[in-house]
Amino acid sequence: MLFIAAFLLIFIALVHSILGEKYILIRLFKRNNLPKLFGGTWFTENTLRFAWHVTSFAWVGFAAVLVTYEMNLSNPEQKILLVTFATFFLTGLVAFVFSKGKHLSWIVFWAIAAICGWAALY
Fold first, then answer.
1. What 3-state class would DSSP assign to 103?
2. CB neighbour class for 105 (10 Å; exposed up to 12, middle 13-18, buried from 19)
3. Contact 109/95 with Cβ under 8 angstroms?
4. CB-CB neighbours of 35 under 10 Å
5. What is the three-state SS of 33-51?
6. Cα–Cα distance between 50 and 81 in angstroms, integer?
7. Please, which pLDDT band fits residue 98 given cuts at 50, 70 and 90?
8. Closest by Cα among 49, 116, 55, 54 to 86
9. Are 116 and 84 within 8 A, CB to CB?
10. Distances in Å between the alpha carbon of 6 and those of 64, 66, 74, 107?
11. Is 37 left (phi over 0), alpha (psi -120 to 50) or beta?
12. Over 90: is that where the pLDDT of 21 sits?
């Protein structure tokens, strides 16, 4: 049953990102009244885009946790910590790339990843 839930999480993550980009974000970015941060709308648009898609990353991470749990692997706690590490590392990478390092959430996401990675290994 958890495989079905994981599949549904991945499905909704894809739908959320694709349809959100097409029907919400692109239309929103055509407006001429977005806040101008750091001298223009580039930072605003990329922050909104990151914030929108990070939800999908989290859902895929949850799907991986469900699959890990369902597979009855040895040392499931370690595997779940590694999934959490990967989820937050990738989230931090996306935050860093989308904002060219200006949105400082990547520091926190990578700190969370490091803590989870360390906990999984030790």
1. coil
2. middle
3. yes
4. 8
5. CCCCECCECHHHHHHHHHH
6. 23
7. confident
8. 116
9. yes
10. 7, 6, 20, 28
11. beta
12. yes
**Left if phi > 0, otherwise alpha if psi is -120 to 50, otherwise beta: which for 35?**
beta
51-96 pLDDT tens trace: 999 999 999 999 999 999 999 888 999 999 999 999 999 999 999 9
Q: Which residue has the tokens 């101008």?
A: 36
Neighbours of 116 (CB within 10 A): 20
Q: How far apart are CA 119 and CA 101, in angstroms?
A: 26
Residues forming beta bridges with residue 37, ordered by sequence position: 40
